[in-house]
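Exercise 7.
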Amino acid sequence: MLAEKRNVWLLASCQALFMTGNALMITLSTLVGDHMLTEDRALVTLPVTSMVVGTLVATMPASFWMRFIGRRWGFMTGAAIGFGGGIVTSVAIYENIFWLFCLGTFMMGSYNAFAQYYRFAAADVASDSYRSRAISYVMAGGVVSALFGPELARQTHDLVATYSYLASYMSLSVLASAALLLLSFLNIPRMTAEERRDTGRPWLAIARQPVFIVAVLSSVVGYASMSLVMTATPLAMAICNHGLNETAFVIQWHALGMFAPSFVTGHLIRRFGVLYIILVGCVIEVAAVMTNLHGITFLHFGMALFLLGVGWNFMFIGGTALVTETYQPSEKGKAQAINDFIVFGSVAISSFASGNLLHYVNWSAVNYSALPFIALTVVAVLWLIARRRAEPTAA
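Solution. The predicted structure, written as tokens, is:
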């Protein structure tokens, strides 16, 4: 028990570091894109989209690499890529090269692909009674990012007077270096040669399970809806004449909403059941959208983004906990890879669509677009609840 808790807190600390970098990039990347682009402003969210595409592209290779080399060295590989991403984005800002900046955010996204497995690594080494809490505690590491990510962006964006945002992106390499150091102390046994040979069921057999489908849908919609609205928020606030300090504060509260509930989400799942927590997450995301549609004041943006974060927390952690019920230990690599590939593929689409909807239509269209997908998730979860209730009766 002591060893699993030690691993969980190491992973939570690394989660805090990589999410601090993410919060900084979410706060600034759209603004950096807007600063670099002079004509086609529809591409303003491309740096954020590149980050998500980097996550998508690296998700499966990261899983297979860790299956071969082990969690510790796999996670350290990801942190090393993050170090390089910080260097590339910094050079891009110094030279004012938009495509190079997108390459750097792509590399940071690849780092994210490895880091997204922190939650699964915690679940893999935890006992059944501790699993949902282990996932939650690792995700709770993001609370640090809520406090320090936007604040780091605010304090460093003009630190180098002639190169706005340069110091901010240089700090990404510092954060990745700290993660490298912590990961060197991680102690998760590598799979044996026999375990690596046993690959379990085919991908399709895992993916077509009703529970797996609902679990992935919950994570996809929770994450993609959040990305759709959140990616456009910094630019929408700028259009509405809100300054960087206000934008950073809103992102800070959004990150708090995303991660602060993690201290209790695992307990809530154990008490009320994962499906009901996902339903609550859907309701909260709808409340976030309706708040955005109601007004464009600083208070509206702040409240909406905070609620959006809480809804994401319940839907994403709920989906993660639910997907761990669908595979055997020998199948975890492929099942986790399928899950994250679908999730971040959807997030890539939503983040790119966000900028286009805001540019070609308006802020309301960005928010309305999330509602049909949330409704679909509600229907799917209610169907699974009814199916599970019917199973004992049929038996």
